[in-house]
Amino acid sequence: MKIDLHVHTKISSPCSSIKITQMIDYARHIGLDAICVTDHDTLHGAILAQKIGKEKNFPVFKGMEINTYEGDFLVFGLEKDIGKPLSARELLDLVSSSGGAAIVAHPYRPFERALKDKVYSIKGFNALEVENGNTSPEYNKLAQSASFKLSLPGTGGSDAHQLWEIGRYYTRFDHTITSEQELVEAIKSGNYQAKTGASNVLNYNQEAVTNYSYHKEKINEQPVSYLRQLI
Ligand SMILES: [Zn+2]
Ligand SMILES: [Zn+2]
C-alpha cells in the first residue's frame, strides 16, 4: 500500500497552495493508495480532508507536523492540537501516552527545524523520514545512515506544498491500512520501505503526470472539473 505520509494543505498550512479536493484527485490519479495530511501544528485541515476523502472514497489519515524546540516531528494518533510550544521530550512523551507514533521529519535538512545529530540522543520516536521531498539527496542520505545506525525504520514523504509535488516520495507498507489506529501500528511495526524518487509513482501514468507538471503554474487555481479534463 503506497502512502504519502507528509503533505500540507492550504487550509491550515499557509505555506501550501494545495486544495483538498485537488489533493485527493491527484493522489488517486498518480497511483497512491492513501495520503496523510500533516499540517503544521494543527489537525484542522486533516479533519476536513478526511471528511472529503470519505465522500470521495479515498483514504486520508490525520497527522501533524509539530515543531519542537529541537526540530520537526510527524505525529500520528493525536486527537487534538497541542497549542503550545514544547520540547521533543515533551512531545514524544505525549505521543507515547496517547498511543500514537512519531517520526523525525527531514532529520538532516540544513537550516532550522531539523534534529540533526540529536536523533542519536533523543529517544522514543518510531522512525526517521529518510526520504523527504524538500531535502536534497545528500541530506536524505545522512538520515538513511542514522536510520541504519539506530536500527529504526525509514519513511518517505513528499512534504508537498504544491500539488505536483505530492507522491515524489512515499512509503510502501506491506499490509493494507484502513484506519489511523492501523497506521500507527504499522509505523511502529517497521514493515515498510521509503520509496526514493517521484519516478516510482510517475511510472504509473507518466503522461498524466507530465500534463499536471505542464499545467503546474495554474493548476492550483482551477476547479476540480478542470482537473478532470486533464485526467
Ligand atoms: Zn518540517
Ligand atoms: Zn512539512
Q: What are the key terms here?
A:
binds zinc ion, TIM Barrel, alpha/beta, disordered C terminus, 231 residues, nine-stranded mixed sheet
What can you see in these coordinates?
By secondary structure, the chain is α/β, with parallel strands linked by helices. It contains 9 helices and 9 strands. The chain has a single domain, classed as Metal-dependent hydrolases (TIM Barrel, Alpha-Beta Barrel). It has a 9-stranded mixed sheet. The structure holds zinc ion (ZN) (2 copies). Residues 6, 8, 65, 159 line the site of one zinc ion.
How are the SSEs ordered, and which strands pair?
Elements: E1 2-7, H1 20-30, E2 34-40, H2 44-55, E3 60-67, E4 72-76, H3 88-97, E5 101-104, E6 127-132, H4 137-150, E7 154-157, E8 170-173, H5 180-189, E9 192-195, H6 199-202, H7 206-214, H8 216-219, H9 224-230
Parallel strand pairs: 1-2, 2-3, 5-6, 6-7
Antiparallel strand pairs: 1-8, 3-4, 4-5, 8-9
The structure holds zinc ion (2 copies).
CATH class: Alpha Beta
Q: Please count the beta strands (DSSP E, at least 2 residues each).
A: 9
Number of continuous helical runs: 9
Q: How far apart are the first and last residues' alpha carbons, in Å?
A: 22 Å
In angstroms, what is the radius of gyration? 16 Å
Residue fraction in strands: 15-25%
The CATH homologous superfamily: Metal-dependent hydrolases
Global morphology: globular
Mean pLDDT: 87
> Can you tell me the CATH topology?
TIM Barrel
Name the poorly predicted regions.
Answer: 199-210, 212-231
Bound molecules: zinc ion
Tally of distinct domains: 1
